[in-house]
Amino acid sequence: MGSVLSTRVLDGDPRAIARAISLVEEEGQAGRDLVSEIYSQTGRAYLIGVTGAPGTGKSTLVDRLIAEIRRAGLTVGVIAVDPTSPFTGGAVLGDRVRMSTHAGDRGVFIRSMATRGHLGGLARATGDAALVLDAAGLDIVLIETVGVGQDEVDIVSTADISIVVLVPGTGDELQAIKAGVMEIADIFVVNKADREGADRVVQGVAASLSLHPYGPAEWTPPILKTEAITGAGVDALWATIGRFRDWASSDRRTRLRKRSASRLRDLLAASFLRHVDARLPEGEFDRLVEAVSARETDPYSAVAKVMTRVLPESQVPSPGSGVPDPESRVPDPEPVPDPQSPVPDPR
Ligand SMILES: Nc1nc2c(ncn2[C@@H]2O[C@H](COP(=O)(O)OP(=O)(O)O)[C@@H](O)[C@H]2O)c(=O)[nH]1
Ligand SMILES: [Mg+2]
Q1: Going by CA atoms, what residue is nearest to atom 28 of ligand 1?
Q2: Is the CB of residue 225 below 6 angstroms from any atom belonging to ligand 1?
Q3: Which residues of the chain have pLDDT under 50?
């Protein structure tokens, strides 16, 4: 049973798309309901993640990619997870594109998402926004994120293809290695190739890739040079995206499964924490935090105590184990009163 809004999203109405993305950003029940209504109509869009440090030229590159995508006769939705501040030197993608030739193009939908609030929420909201664009029938969904945190890595690693953008002169390839961004790259782009030192970055990335012996059946991430401000090299990037898409097509189910598994785990964790919040007595969590910091109790026992409070007794899993394990039940630090065999309250 669909709402008017979801029907309009499925029709590709830009105002409905904008409204729907605002709803999922709020992380309330209305957003969850909307996703439930549109979900069966998703899974068709090709998700391209573009990540890199602030100021590396991601938005400029995305603007150029939009042009390539439109030239190929495809439609595109863009989500810019854009924490751009006056300090990073970047410009808000929306502004950049409003000034460009894509303004007023019905085949292009652009939305910025701010990093306000908690980070896990941002990854969820971004995933849901991608579903909205997917349901709206856009062929390609581009997601621009600043590749600094685990959250951003999570966002792009569930895309169909992940592009990592580096630039000369900042040493950010080293930062990328540290942040675990190297592992998720399907394509490396060395942007600002007009600048001194671009070839050194290419060699640096190639050297770090050579530490991983790629088998003949494996995709070795290509390292491409671009000049996003002039557009040089962007056609080659688009062609390489196409090559990867063909190469990985047999593997798409695996990626979709990985994305679904990651979303399910994430939503389960969030939903369980909400359940815990709703069941724990007021102030109980803070009391446990105090007790753990004061070494009056240990974190495992604290978790066991929370579990016995919020779950039916027979379902309490042992702390730290992913699955309920009936063989190793934790002793109840605070037994639930049982009418059959009354236990004295330890307090
Ligand atoms: N020299 C040079 N500057 C570029 C290039 N691409 C982008 N820029 C500039 O780099 C700055 C940051 O670009 P932006 O796309 O906002 O970066 P983002 O923060 O990664 O999205 C802007 O002033 C761009 O004009 C390039 O290929 N060469
Ligand atoms: Mg940007």
Answers
A1: 192
A2: no
A3: 1, 84-91, 98-99, 324, 326-330, 332, 335-339, 341-344, 346-347
